[in-house]
Amino acid sequence: MSDPDYNFAYLDEQTKRMIRRSLLKAVAIPGYQVPFGSREMPMPYGWGTGGIQLTASLIGLDDTLKVIDQGSDDTTNAVSIRKFFRRTTGVATTEKTTEATLIQTRHRIPETPLQKGQILIYQVPIPDPLSFLEPRETEARKMHALSEYGIMHTKLYEDIAHYGAILHTYDYPVMVNDRYVMRPSPIPKFDNPKMDNMHALQVFGAGREKRIYAVPPYTKVKSLDFEDHPFEVQRWENSCALCGADNTFLDEIVVDDHGERLFACADSDYCQTRQAEQGGQR
Amino acid sequence: MQAAFQDSVHDSQQCFRHILKAMSEPGTKVTLPSIDVELPIANATLSILLTLVDQSTSLWLDDDVRQRALLDYLDFHVGAVVTRNTQDASFAVVTDIGAIPDLTLFSVGTEEQPHGNCTLIIETSFQGKLSRLTGPGIENDVELALGLPEPLLDQRQALSVLAPCGIDMILVDGNDVIALPRTTQIEVY
Ligand SMILES: [Zn+2]
């Protein structure tokens, strides 16, 4: 049961309608940032209020919600958002990627491929990929309108000239449906290829900056690159010390008081599921 | 006054998710729950209006349904600002597809604000010639009958040069809904 002192999912119905209309526009114009009347939420902006408002406008009694932060279901941020929705909606929550209908995420895409019908909701701190290059919002909007992204390519090419590589390892810009350059939020660029032609709907919410954007399923998402410097993802020499995976994003973790370290999957559900499968096979 | 959703919070949430699915996966037919009312518009049209429209959106209705009973109902349950000017409408309802105004009369948004377009809710019957749809939201392609007259499809096609501006359509047949966002390409056999 949800707490009767709250509206279902906290937001009032008029706010949900406004967000829902914006979300439909976002889906109809893949990669375009739709402005919306972001509301105050009972948590600070750094806590993913944009993603929370999207989830609140989407969620219903039949949903199963998963919340991850950096791939883990157990961090303070993920736990408190999950509690918030359990209290205000009473809906089921899960840590299993395969069981979730809605997945709210901060900074990762699950390793388990998402399915048609699932919705991935990203918490976005800074929505506009041009904001560091062109701080005047009116100018940035014009560049998006004309698909004039020369300034972005110049910056990336300068990185290559100076450092031999493009510096972004997180929040690496992508081109959506051959039209809009989009920030994927601070996911590692390792996750970028998962956005391309994904079976699930991807929606993005920036609370402080009041922007919503989306990528429909089966939509082209291309990481920006150059013919002589093609896009590459991070690779590790190690495999996961816990499940043996050699194709996942790894975190380095300290395992004892002597500073002993090992590498393990950042996606805790993926890693635990693999460990359970291996345990069952023995 | 006739009733609207039985449970406005949960019914509108459910309807929204169906509409969102339709818009995200063009060509996928979704079925909206029934509402027990006697009005000159289709059940799904009514559900869409109850779900998405309120006093902050302007609504255009074609002559066929701009009648007292419906206007009173919408005023009471939706609070929509009904306009007679197609260019002002953020949503438009077309029940007589033979008399649909030229699409260029509706707003397509602007280059900087392509989301300022009108969303057309068009009542039709999903019969007739097959169309092949491609574009974002569609894995490979999908084939189905949309029941849209060719001149309308031609007008829609002509708007594609304005992308990312354009018109989004939500087609309605009874309780069934198929959405055609501006990004969907339609090829008629
Ligand atoms: Zn692992």
List the topology elements:
The complex is a heterodimer of chains A (282) and B (189).
Chain A: H1 13-28, E1 34-35, H2 49-58, E2 64-69, H3 76-89, E3 92-93, E4 102-106, E5 119-123, H4 137-146, H5 150-163, E6 174-176, E7 180-182, H6 192-195, E8 201-206, E9 211-215, E10 221-223, E11 250-254, E12 261-265, H7 268-281
Parallel strand pairs in A: 2-3, 2-4, 4-5, 5-8
Antiparallel strand pairs in A: 1-9, 6-7, 6-10, 8-9, 11-12
Chain B: H1 8-24, E1 30-31, H2 43-52, E2 58-61, H3 68-77, E3 81-83, E4 91-94, E5 119-123, E6 130-134, E7 142-145, H4 150-158, E8 168-173, E9 176-180, E10 185-188
Parallel strand pairs in B: 2-3, 2-4, 4-5, 5-8
Antiparallel strand pairs in B: 1-9, 6-7, 6-10, 8-9
Helix pairs in contact in B: 1-2
The complex binds zinc ion.
InterPro entries (chain B): PhnH-like_sp, Phosphonate_metab_PhnH
GO molecular function (chain B): lyase activity
Organism (chain B): Leucothrix arctica
Q: How would you describe the shape of chain B?
A: globular
CATH level-two architecture of the largest domain in chain A: 3-Layer(aba) Sandwich
Intertermini distance of chain A = 41 Å
Mean pLDDT of chain A: 94
The largest contact between protein chains, plus residue counts on each side, is: A-B, 43 and 35 residues
Using the 3D structure, state the CATH architecture of chain B: 3-Layer(aba) Sandwich
Number of H- or I-type helical stretches of chain B: 4
Q: What would you say this structure looks like, in words?
A:
The complex is a heterodimer of chains A (282) and B (189). Chain A is α/β, with parallel strands linked by helices and 282 residues long. Chain A contains seven helices and twelve strands. In chain A, 29% of the residues lie in helices and 18% in strands. In chain A, helix 1 (13-28) packs across helix 2 (49-58). The model of chain A has no long low-confidence stretch (mean pLDDT 94). By secondary structure, chain B is α/β, with parallel strands linked by helices. Chain B has a single domain (8-188), classed as Rossmann fold (3-Layer(aba) Sandwich), CATH 3.40.50. In chain B, the strands form two sheets. Chain B has a seven-stranded mixed sheet with strand order 1-9-8-5-4-2-3. In chain B, strands 7-6-10 form a three-stranded antiparallel sheet, with no helix packed on it. Chain B is globular and about 45 Å long. The chains are: A alpha/beta (282), B alpha/beta (189). Chain A binds chain B through residues 7-8, 13-14, 16-18, 20-30, 32, 34, 57-61, 116-117, 141-142, 144-146, 177, 179-180, 199, 201, 215-220, and chain B through 8-10, 12-14, 16-17, 19-21, 23-25, 51-54, 56-57, 111-112, 114-115, 119, 136-139, 163-164, 168, 181-183. The complex binds zinc ion (ZN). Zinc ion binds at residues 240, 242-243, 245, 264-265, 271, 274 of chain A. Residues 240, 242-243, 245, 264-265, 271, 274 of chain A line the site of zinc ion.
